[in-house]
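Postdoc handover notes: sequence design on the structure in folder B. Input tokens:
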């Protein structure tokens, strides 16, 4: 759409150039100000995505406002208690529509303890903190095809499962936890929970005869269709590609589908940039590695990851909206 309409094209080019410059400036910034540059780099990338999306009309593709506001920041010693409340409208809501993603409704309030584990990037630094058990899970496709004496199936390991599930592996808690991952629905039998190298995993199996039959027929009739979401292999429909791997994401606070990682980054970075901008003393304490139980290492790791994750997610979103237009 940015190539078809000159006005959209100008918005697209200007916003993407600003996004790149904000992110480049963040590379050389210290943690004291880094979240500000990264957040505005993401915000301008969102405006470029909106300009390129045919899901948005001429009145929608130039959004206004943050669409969220940060709460519980004043003299806050606990990073994970900082919350983000959704507004009725704003830039992230417009970007969600542009990329066909769910987003939390107005007045929904999420803490950083809930948001942080939704990003695969945070996995190496979560262990010391008591965060939400609903995390991004790495999806490891094991096998698919016909059983020796039964119908077709799909099987996969879910990696990064909370320890609390291993302790409750024979209780209904496991199924209740799995229910928060809507794209995993339809599994059969009993989930197998295993401890592998100190990490907890769950193995799930899905009956897939009808899906496989339809997929194979579509592949036979037109191999080029395999790139479209509705005709991809069943296991691809259950997972989201992120950072070169496949991940399963939970749906929280009333949404029926997972919120796109780009929008999770939006909420987290808004919170961090608000702390840095409006509560400099609080922020200085949070990024001080010498403070007891400091989250400084987790914050710095997240900001380092953002410098590669945000451009990659932006490129994927632009490819998505372009494919939607041409398709």
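Designed sequence:
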């Amino acid at each position: 759409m940015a190539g078809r309409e000159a006005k959209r094209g100008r918005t697209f080019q200007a916003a993407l150039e600003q996004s790149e410059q904000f992110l480049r400036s963040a590379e050389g910034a210290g943690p004291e100000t880094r979240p500000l540059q990264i957040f505005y780099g993401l915000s301008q990338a969102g405006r470029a995505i909106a300009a390129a999306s045919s899901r948005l009309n001429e009145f929608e593709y130039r959004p206004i406002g943050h669409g969220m506001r940060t709460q519980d920041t004043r003299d806050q010693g606990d990073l994970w208690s900082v919350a983000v409340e959704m507004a009725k409208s704003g830039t992230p809501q417009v970007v969600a529509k542009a990329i066909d993603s769910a987003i939390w409704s107005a007045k929904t309030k999420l803490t950083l303890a809930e948001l942080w584990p939704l990003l695969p990037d945070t996995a190496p630094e979560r262990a010391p903190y008591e965060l939400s058990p609903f995390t991004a899970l790495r999806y490891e496709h094991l096998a698919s095809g016909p059983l020796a004496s039964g119908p077709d199936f799909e099987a996969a390991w879910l990696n990064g499962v909370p320890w609390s599930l291993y302790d409750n592996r024979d209780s209904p808690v496991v199924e209740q936890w799995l229910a928060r991952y809507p794209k995993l629905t339809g599994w059969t039998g009993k989930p197998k929970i295993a401890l592998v190298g100190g990490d907890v995993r769950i193995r799930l199996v899905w009956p897939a005869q009808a899906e496989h039959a339809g997929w194979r027929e579509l592949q036979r009739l037109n191999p080029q269709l395999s790139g479209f979401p509705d005709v991809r292999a069943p296991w691809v429909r259950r997972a989201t590609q992120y950072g070169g791997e496949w991940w399963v994401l939970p749906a929280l606070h009333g949404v029926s589908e997972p919120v796109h990682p780009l929008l999770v980054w939006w909420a987290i970075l808004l919170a961090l940039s608000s702390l840095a901008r409006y509560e400099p003393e609080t922020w200085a304490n949070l990024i001080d590695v010498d403070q007891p139980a400091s989250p400084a290492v987790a914050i710095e790791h997240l900001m380092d990851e953002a410098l590669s994750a945000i451009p990659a997610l932006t490129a994927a979103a632009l490819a998505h909206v372009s494919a939607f237009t041409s398709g």
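Context for whoever picks this up: Residues 39 and 270 are 6 Å apart (CA to CA). Don't rerun without checking with the PI first.
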